[in-house]
TrEMBL record:
It comes from the Bacteria. This is Hemoglobin/transferrin/lactoferrin receptor protein. Gene3D superfamilies: TonB-dependent receptor, beta-barrel domain, TonB-dependent receptor, plug domain. PANTHER family: FE(3+) DICITRATE TRANSPORT PROTEIN FECA (PTHR30442:SF0), IRON III DICITRATE TRANSPORT PROTEIN FECA (PTHR30442). Belongs to the TonB-dependent receptor family. The lineage of its organism: Bacteria, Pseudomonadati, Pseudomonadota, Betaproteobacteria, Burkholderiales.
Amino acid sequence: MTLSTKHTARAGAPTPMAAALALALGACGSAWAAGAVDTSNDSQLPAISVFGDAISAGTAGRSYINSEDIERQQADNVASLLDTLPGVDLAGTARPSGQSLNIWGFNKVQDVKVILDGVPKGFEKYRQGSIFIEPELIKQIEVNKGAHTSLYGNGGFGGVITVETKDAQDMLEGDARLGAFVKYSRHSNNAEDDVTVAAYGRTEDGRFDVMAFSTQRTSDDLRKPDGKPFRFSAIDAPSKLVKLNVRLTPEQLLTLTAMQSGSTGWGPFAAMGEDVPTPTEAEIKRYGLEEAWQRKAVYRDQDDDTYSVKWQYAPASNPWVKLTATAGYSHTDQHDKRLPSASLGSYLGSLGNESWASYVDRIAEIRNESVFATGALSHVLMTGLQWHKNVRDTLMYYPSSTALKDPGYNYGYFQPYYMPSGRQETRGLYVQDAITYGDVTLTAALRHDRVVSAGVPNVASRYNSALPAAGHDFSEKTHADWSPRLGLFWKASSALALFGDLSRSWRAPTIDEMYSNEYYVSARLGSNTPGTSRDLLVERVTAARIGVMLHRQGVFQERDDAQLRVTAYRNRVDDNIGPRLGILVEGYVPGSGAGLPAGLSSYRNLAGLRTEGVEIESYYNSPRLFASASLSSQFGSRRGSQRDPWGRNEPVSTVAPDKLMAGLGWRFADLGATVGWQGRFVAKQDRVLPVGNVYRLPPSKGYALHTLFASWNGTGGFWRGTEVRLTVDNVFNHNYMPYLSEAVTGVGRNAKLSVSRKF
């Protein structure tokens, strides 16, 4: 786990960073020159490393969060779990469904791929969060930062996050065949009650195992550090998971997974940011306090379902065959509705007075891994085929007095012009060969993707004009290209390894980017940029990372473990896609209306950008003591600007501040107890866009947050199987405002107590 802390060199006094790094790095430093140590211990220590327990080509560049990390944090959402990793930051707020992920400055849904039990999860609804996975159901999370994997194509510039859910084998202990689990949690800040129940079992011969898992979160609004309510942050979110494993033969495993979650409640239209404006005294007097607040919000009903089937075949006698076939289905649906007393003509740009959004993903994949040798070279050859189809349906109701009477608005019912309906189908194939000679592994990979996109013509003719000058074209468009990758890994000794990756990848424009358009009735009654954007070029990234990994056991005593990883990276993006703003064409004077071609597209390719940075991760683990520290520093620059590709360069607004995460803990094995501290130190961010820029995030101040945690496990007798955990976030109730939250204040002190029992 990353018991980490955020900080930056610009945040102020360096004492916390120096202390944390000295603790973890100093623990590692005295042992690198020592010889190999026997790693066969009688018992295994709990894993504390987030980049694997061994130095290998398979773990280079990857980070992991295991079930112990998840239990320790007692987080409400997956994004806050991942926010403890260097280079990974939560974007959005603590509101339900208000979180997205930012990796190395990339924050779009298409730039951070999330894979749940083999099924892609992506929700691109305007101004909403993108990831809705219940943490209680998760076994492990793997993060591969950067565009350095060939297993997933068309995007993922920031990285790929794969989430694996629990199954019966994770819950059963020893030789037990049946079991049950109950857990109750209470959070002090928002009076949150979480109830989890599970039942699981396996047959005597081990061929079948099954688990049914259910959790329910309910709460009031969160409280800010000053004690004021964080309006519309209450939770009412049930989740369910059923998982069946069938061992068809000793060489074949069939896994079926069904996961359902949902949430209901009042919330702001933009769940990812913005506090709701306070009602005026006149509004409170007219509508009453509760309705006056609700008129500023929407009632949101959300469902998120995931189903997958996975078949694995690995004959022990044939190293050429290790087959995995996966089929999956994901459906995320949101229905928003405003009160009848809300304004009827004020929400054209925020999905009207009622809206429906449905996102469906279907995937099928077959993958094979072959292990063989050619002379002195050993090979791990991976080949695969993938098919992925995404279909999105959108509709909104805009009951303005004009729209209700106007057939051009379809009498108020139409697709949001900035969030059109459409489909995107991707077919990909890849081949990857990891070739090892001695202590050096060269990984060469090549992937091809073909992406076919099609929009759905708007039912409102204002946004679906047949006039050529409008440029409203929703027809099909195909993009296809190759993505090559090279990776080099050298294990210089049992304790030291170096690695590097160079990748070139691309992504096709999304449905939003190609088929969003603005209204057109005539040259006099229409936007300067009314057209759809089917002629966009694909975005491309050239990504590089290099790093060093150090791992030693027996540092200060026989059964301890120390690890260090340093990574430097750079990403160069060309032809990045953005809305057409400001200087619409080269030489255009804003507001002049002169010299513009008809049907100008709503989106365009910009001049490009780059992000780069350095990460340091370190961990120490012993039977009694464990510690960690991670530091990340990012920088980003855009060629030109989003409003003027020919103008002056500007910062990449989505680059997160420097951060340091640090932690220290103690185990008391004879008592079954653990106690510890976790710190988060975040720097100020003052490299922001100019005032007036539509994508500007306001500058933020540096801050420090502290967490204390403790746990106790019953080890025998009546208490065996009982676990008690206490986590206190923001111990000093510090007032802070995360940069990527769009100037929304963070959450006050929160004591989280849980009691669980296995039967």
